[in-house]
Amino acid sequence: MSADGHLDLTTRLDIRPVAGRVGAEIAGLTLSADLPDADIGAIEAALYRHKVLFFHGQQHLDDDAHEAFAARLGELLPHPTVPVRKGSKSLLELDSIHGGGRANAWHTDITFLPAYPKASILRAVQSTQSGGDTVWANTAEAYKRLPEALRALADSAWAIHTNAYDYAAAKPNARPEDVARHREVFASTVYETEHPVVRVHPETGERTLVLGQFLKSLKGFDMADSRRIYETLQAHVTQLENTVRWRWAEGDVAIWDNRATQHYAINDYGDQRRIMRRVTLAGDVPLSIDGRSSRAISPAPAN
Questions:
Q1: Is-above-0.70 flag for pTM?
Q2: With 0-12 CB in 10 A as exposed, 13-18 as middle and 19+ as buried, what is 302?
């Protein structure tokens, strides 16, 4: 039983924590759409507890099986601007040959949408001999450990998130073709959304920080002050003690709670080819601690 008297479904799983504050490996489980409901419930419970789950040896998953398993956890959500992999419903392919997966910046997936994804399921199709790790940070733990005065500021703050950020400035070493692709594909439709800096997690009740590279500015502050406040809060998120780093092997799968984490794909593998495929699951519109909802700015919501 859990501390609140409810049945602890996670006891069905062989859970091996990877880092002290975030991340756990689940051993001995073959992921598929045919898993019993109790196993799916246990995976979800473990995800909310550990924020990121890792599974070795899932080479049996092809694109269809990947999507079918993901659908047991929620509604599939295609990327709003990047085309899905041919023949799939929602798979986003991250192929390093085309610049995919080199997202060497801290972010929470697709926060420029009002209801950004609740979770992502990432599968390693082709891994590198060295480099190419991914790091996750626990934004709930970061919030809990903020100094009291900084927490009070975060509690009342709202921010604008957008996909139309300055890619070249954010990634000074980016190839010209990657800059062009960002402008022509990723930002082909410009989204802007106003989110609370602190949201309440709908499953756990935890307060989590909503930050990351898609944050454009803080409401009520000029750009210089926005940047300084953002960097101060973001530094608390990415403290090493709040992070877990995963070395990928082909067939590995990671599932993360996108409402309680940020992640960073390390671009340190040169011209080695790295292919990852990701499914994201539809999320909910965040609520601030005083119960107000995030709202779309652009495109303007229909009346």
A1: yes
A2: exposed
